[in-house]
Design a protein that fits this description.
The complex is a heterodimer. Chain A is an all-alpha fold. Chain A has a single domain, classed as Up-down Bundle (Formate dehydrogenase/DMSO reductase fold), CATH 1.20.1630.10. Helix content of chain A is 70%, strand content 0%. Chain A has 16 helices and no strands. The relative contact order of chain A is 0.19. Chain B is α+β, with helices and mostly antiparallel strands. Chain B folds into two domains: 84 residues, Alpha-Beta Plaits (2-Layer Sandwich); 70 residues, no CATH class. Chain B contains five helices and six strands. The mean pLDDT of chain B is 90. At the A-B interface, helix 1, helix 5, helix 6, helix 7 and helix 15 of A face helix 1, strand 2, helix 2, helix 3 and helix 4 of B.
Chain lengths: 463, 174
């Protein structure tokens, strides 16, 4: 027992009287059991939204980008807002699985699997928007430097948009192998528990024949550590490069050196909010409250509070620098943002992102599940508006007052966005029923250090 | 030499660790240990050498970096230099800052994927691979130590029984 020592002041991360076998049973239960009615209702709604989105995408591709609300002044709006929003949400998964691994934060183990799933599913949604925005989707492979019949026709490596292609595809594929490598032992657990031959076959296939040899575990841990070390700068680079899409342009309001750290903080902020949204429901529905405890929610709320404050600092710094620069165009861009025709979007952004996370200073509020859920939704709305404000308000009043205009989305714009939300939840709901949603092997490895039962045995029962 | 092994099963990682140390001290050869989760310190207790997979990742990363430099130099500087936005690409050094993001991404891409492929190959993991764990419970809550029978089988079993095992099986290893 002494080798599993953990300071008594640390609260248990696994509640209740759990044994190793109990963990297997609890993690396998949602996969082995039947779906409840609520799941079917949620799945039907998500699927309907997804199909509606497909309809809108087909309509866009068949007719042309003209069916969107874009105009000659506002050439980027709804689609890129959604792109940045989804990429940002994705970042929390890597933060939880990679950065918290490097910092040896044990609380990551209850939530990393679902957070990484969220990363992958949301980056898929994000990738859809630039591809559809290309217009001629069937030429999407032109973004890759592939040999072609023109011989010397290559992509432009000076362009931040191409950097984005490389960053997003590296991010998606590396996140996927990181996730899958971690899944192998857990798929193996499901395989060895499976009774029906079909399930045994499927999980046998997915687990790649994992057997849990000592040497495999040694490599597994080393690979996880190195992948975490690679994924950490990668995730920072991805949103940095997304911010370069704007920061390397010469548009007032976009041409800002503060963008990379500001975007990364915003991404972590919105991503943790989405993790909270998903896990607060999942822990309840799948009976995983012993593994995703109130403490996990509280710690995520603290991250939301800190990153929200960083984002707030960035907003205020932007305003200050615009004034301090003495550049009229820059000053007008920010004055227009806050007081122009889109003042309401700016107000939404400020109140949702800067004001609302400050409630988390109060322990009572950040340990309240209902309140955390409400704030997580508020933050997601706020972060969508942040991207909308940055993109649309910087464009709609350009250098030439005669071309000043407003942007309003069409039903197709809105439909595609709703469709991606539907697609995201279709994937997540399927995942919640078929995948081991908790990294059970890793949780087992901290059971003796952080399990409630073992902590009590070791520290004596003081309660 | 016979391929006979004794599989001793344990239900606790701490008991397993002690058993591994005792078996090693008594000069028996541990063929393999199967565990449901990473037991820290087990590799050292078994006398396994450290893995070199992190070194391969570093080398793959270097390959990725070199490849990206070669690719962008060939495409942008050598084969068809263009004047893009008043920033001509006639010399690699002058254009290099714009290539840094992709140089970084390719380094990570190569390091991560090739390392994972190396891991899967070395640990024999791929789709349709049959699992080889001796008992389905070893992915749940049981730990199996395989000790090679070299000499007196009964003596070895008697020895293992004293190490806190819950089940002992003698089997042929292929």
């Amino acid at each position: 027992m002494s080798s599993h020592y953990e300071a008594p002041i640390r609260r248990p991360l696994i509640d209740g009287d759990k044994s190793y076998h109990d963990i297997s049973v609890d993690v396998a239960a949602p996969v082995e059991g039947k779906a409840i009615k609520l799941w079917w209702i949620a799945f039907s709604i998500a699927l309907t939204a997804f199909l509606w989105g497909i309809g809108c995408i087909v309509y866009t591709i068949g007719t042309g980008i003209g069916v969107w609300g874009l105009n000659k002044t506002v050439g980027w709006a709804w689609d890129i807002t959604n792109f940045v929003w989804w990429v940002g949400i994705g970042h929390a998964g890597t933060l939880i699985s990679a950065v918290l691994l490097l910092f040896r934060q044990k609380w990551r183990m209850g939530i990393n699997r679902s957070a990484e799933a969220m990363t992958i599913f949301s980056v898929i949604q994000a990738g859809l928007f630039p591809v559809i925005h290309m217009g001629r989707v069937w030429n999407a492979h032109f973004v890759l430097p592939l040999p072609n019949q023109f011989g010397t026709l290559w992509t432009n490596f000076n362009s931040p948009l191409l950097w984005d292609v490389f960053a997003i595809s590296t991010y998606l594929s590396v996140s996927l192998v990181f996730w899958w490598t971690g899944l192998l032992p857990d798929f193996a657990m499901l395989r060895d528990r499976a009774i029906r031959p079909f399930q045994k076959k499927i999980y046998g296939l997915l687990s790649f024949g994992w057997t849990g040899r000592a040497k495999d575990w040694q490599r597994f841990e080393e690979v996880s550590l190195v992948l975490a070390g690679l994924a950490t700068p990668l995730v920072l680079s991805v949103h940095t490069i997304v911010s370069f899409d704007f920061a390397t342009s010469v548009i007032p309001g976009w041409h800002t050196t503060i963008f990379p750290p500001y975007f990364v903080a915003g991404a972590v902020f919105s991503g943790f909010a989405m993790v909270n949204t998903l896990l607060i429901i999942m822990r309840k529905v799948s009976n995983l409250e012993a593994y995703i405890t109130e403490q996990h929610i509280e710690l995520m709320n603290i991250v939301i509070m800190i990153t929200g404050s960083i984002v707030g600092c960035a907003y205020i710094t932007e305003l200050f620098i615009a004034w301090y620069s003495g550049v009229e165009y820059e000053q007008y861009a920010f004055l227009n943002r806050a007081t122009g025709p889109y003042w309401w979007a700016y107000l939404f952004m400020m109140s949702c992102n800067v004001f609302s996370p400050q409630f988390m200073w109060f322990k009572r509020l950040r340990t309240s599940i209902t309140f955390s859920f409400i704030i997580s939704i508020v933050v997601n709305i706020g972060m969508w508006f942040e991207r909308f404000v940055i993109i649309v308000t910087s464009l709609h009043r350009d250098y030439l007052p005669s071309s000043w205009t407003m942007f309003s989305p069409t039903f197709v714009d809105i439909g595609i966005f709703i469709g991606t939300i539907g697609f995201f939840f279709v994937l997540f709901l399927l995942y919640a029923r078929t995948f081991p949603v908790i990294a059970q092997a890793e949780v087992k490895s901290i059971l003796k250090a952080s399990g409630e039962k073992y902590k009590k045995l070791r520290d004596g029962n003081h309660e | 030499m016979s391929n006979k092994v004794v599989q001793a099963m344990y239900n606790d990682d701490d008991i397993l660790m002690d058993a591994v140390k005792e078996v090693r001290a008594a000069n028996y050869h541990i063929e393999e240990v199967y565990t449901p989760f990473p037991v820290h310190g087990l590799d050292k207790a078994m006398g396994l050498k450290g893995t070199r997979i992190a070194i391969t990742a570093f080398m793959y990363g270097c390959v990725g970096l070199v490849f990206s430099v070669w690719m962008m130099n060939y495409m942008m500087i050598e084969q068809w230099p263009q004047d893009i936005g008043g920033k001509p690409s006639f010399a690699f050094v002058q254009n290099m800052p714009a290539f840094v993001p992709i140089m970084f991404e390719m380094t990570v891409f190569f390091a991560a994927h090739l390392m994972v492929i190396t891991f899967y190959m070395r640990s024999r993991l791929w789709p349709f691979k049959e699992a080889e764990n001796p008992d389905p419970r070893t992915t749940d809550d049981m730990f199996v130590m395989e000790v090679i029978v070299d000499g007196n089988e009964a003596e070895l079993i008697a020895f293992l029984e004293k190490t806190g095992t819950v089940e002992i099986k003698v089997t042929e290893k292929h």
